[in-house]
Amino acid sequence: MMQGWPGIYRRAAKAFRRFRRDEAGVAAVEFAFTLPIYLVSIILLVEVARLVYTQSVVLYAAEEATRYALVNYDATSSDIQTVASDKLLGLDPNNLTAIIVTSPVDPDDHTKLVTVEVRYQYVPLLPIDKLIPLGDADGYALKGQSKGFLTEEIPY
User: What pairs with residue 120 in β-bridges?
Assistant: First the structure.
């Protein structure tokens, strides 16, 4: 016996109501919607943490090289540069762009102002610079600078 259109409509409406009440798989769908947001947040967090770590290591290298220059009055610029490059802990030495050491001696009072500047090119793990265009094509230029003042002991 054929039920006709009203019977088909009734069965479809009943199936639709049953489908609406069924909550199986809702958590999976919600997770699928939020997963990209979580992944992007975690990736950005890791990238910012790497950037902050790199900046602090570059500054640490400049400070340690300045400290070395203050303790060793007769240290040459190449000695100071070697100390600075040795203190770049966990960083790629190929991305080190410059270590600038200036230490002019004042001949009148035998004082010296030592300035150490370390420049490093930070390269992100993922192409974040496409989303946030703050750097150039090679990455972000970071700089750490430290100054120290010292006097030479004058023999009496």
Answer: 96, 142
Taking the C-alpha atoms of residue 57 and residue 97, their distance in angstroms, rounded to an integer, is: 14
In whole angstroms, what is the distance from residue 62 CA to residue 50 CA? 19
Q: Which two three-digit tokens encode residue 125?
A: 């793990």
Tokens of 90: 């966990």
| pLDDT tens digit sequence for 18-68 | 777 767 777 888 889 999 999 989 988 998 899 999 999 999 999 999 999
Q: What is the mean pLDDT of residues 110-114?
A: 80
User: What does the alpha-carbon distance between residue 55 and residue 70 come to, in Å, rounded to a whole number?
Assistant: 23
CB contact at 8 A, 53 and 89:
no
pLDDT reported for residue 1: 47
- CA gap 37, 44 in Å, rounded: 11
Using left for φ > 0, alpha for ψ between -120 and 50, and beta otherwise, residue 151 falls in beta
The β-bridge partners of 148 are 114
Q: Are 151 and 70 in contact (CB under 8 A)?
A: no
